Amino acid sequence: MVSRNIVVIFTVLALLMGCGAVEPQGTSSQAEASEAKQSLKIATGKLIFNDSNLSEPAGQSCNSCHQADNFYADPGKMVSPGANPELFGNRNAPSISYVSFTPSIYWDQDEQHWVGGFFLDGRANTLQDQAQGPFINPLEMANPDVASLIAKVKQAAYAPALEQLYGQAIWSDNNKALKAVTDALVAYENGPEFATFSSKYDYYLQGKVDLTALEKKGLQLFEAEDKGNCAACHPNSLQDNGALPLFTDYTYDNLGLARPDQLPFYTMGAEHNPQGADYIDYGLAENPLINNGPDEKGKFKVSTLRNIANTAPYMHNGIFNTLEEVVDFYNSRDIKEKWGKPELQDNLNTEELGDLNMTDAEMQAIVAFMQTLSDGYQLAE
């Protein structure tokens, strides 16, 4: 598959960019060349994203944990195994569809809270910073260092495309080469495949389809401040500029989740988890980019609800397997013992969840509405 894609890439490159032999003349030619370059960058990024030779040992790619066929998530797994299938990370692999819309982390002075950042704790300030992490993480793609990764990239069929895009000089400095690799990845993640805006709800907002009575009831409850109040953190209305909603405000909350007894990370050994079974995930509090860590214990970034019906299990630790469980937890965290003791009591969100007094029918309606958020909805002819 990779070889076939490379042939296509270089055919397009030769036809549209002239292999760099001729400098484009005129605005139209410059625009075409720029578009061709961006297309090449996206195509190269896609090849990198799917290259399972970039791990140590070989066998794991970005797509392994963020599968394009599954809305860029890893459904069915509480946490994902790394290149070494016996090693696991500490968090659920979130869907990265629509990830390019995430802002860099910043302090909202008016609301007095953090917003944005990449990873569930916001520790990467840009998407390019985030893209570097998994390559070197010993629990993910497990390259021992940047040099080891770039040695693999040099042998890849798309290496000439990287040279065409970024110049041969990238190979003289491993960090320059890494920057080129991650820039191409970001171009792909910024591309149309990651943000299709093709859900039933998108078409509903555009007046192209109607929701069922149950879905409309769920929408009403989703928005109602005295019921689900989901829209408080997962805004569902058209944005001020008319753009379709992203279903996250990129803020952080401690929802009061219990410790999942079965989290594989507890048994990863002292090299990867010195605390063993006593490990606690402090979330945003351990983000080196913030200056008030103790005030942020247990908080994790609000995830988008786009494609949520297809990306179980849920929450940062993968503790829930169904949307019904998630909605029930929000509804009854403070009144049902079955949810267990929160892993961290600090900063617990008690204003927007815990005892919402919704009936089973109301909770099911909210689930029905969330099922309209999956991309790929087919409009009637």
From TrEMBL:
<protein>
    <recommendedName>
        <fullName>Cytochrome c domain-containing protein</fullName>
    </recommendedName>
</protein>
<feature type="domain" description="Cytochrome c">
    <location>
        <begin position="213"/>
        <end position="374"/>
    </location>
</feature>
<dbReference type="Pfam" id="PF03150">
    <property type="entry name" value="CCP_MauG"/>
</dbReference>
<feature type="signal peptide">
    <location>
        <begin position="1"/>
        <end position="21"/>
    </location>
</feature>
<dbReference type="GO" id="GO:0009055">
    <property type="term" value="F:electron transfer activity"/>
</dbReference>
<keyword id="KW-0408">Iron</keyword>
<keyword id="KW-0732">Signal</keyword>
<keyword id="KW-0349">Heme</keyword>
<dbReference type="InterPro" id="IPR051395">
    <property type="entry name" value="Cytochrome_c_Peroxidase/MauG"/>
</dbReference>
<keyword id="KW-0560">Oxidoreductase</keyword>
<dbReference type="InterPro" id="IPR004852">
    <property type="entry name" value="Di-haem_cyt_c_peroxidsae"/>
</dbReference>
<feature type="domain" description="Cytochrome c">
    <location>
        <begin position="40"/>
        <end position="157"/>
    </location>
</feature>
<dbReference type="GO" id="GO:0030313">
    <property type="term" value="C:cell envelope"/>
</dbReference>
<dbReference type="GO" id="GO:0020037">
    <property type="term" value="F:heme binding"/>
</dbReference>
<dbReference type="GO" id="GO:0004130">
    <property type="term" value="F:cytochrome-c peroxidase activity"/>
</dbReference>
<dbReference type="GO" id="GO:0046872">
    <property type="term" value="F:metal ion binding"/>
</dbReference>
<keyword id="KW-0479">Metal-binding</keyword>
<dbReference type="InterPro" id="IPR009056">
    <property type="entry name" value="Cyt_c-like_dom"/>
</dbReference>
<dbReference type="InterPro" id="IPR036909">
    <property type="entry name" value="Cyt_c-like_dom_sf"/>
</dbReference>
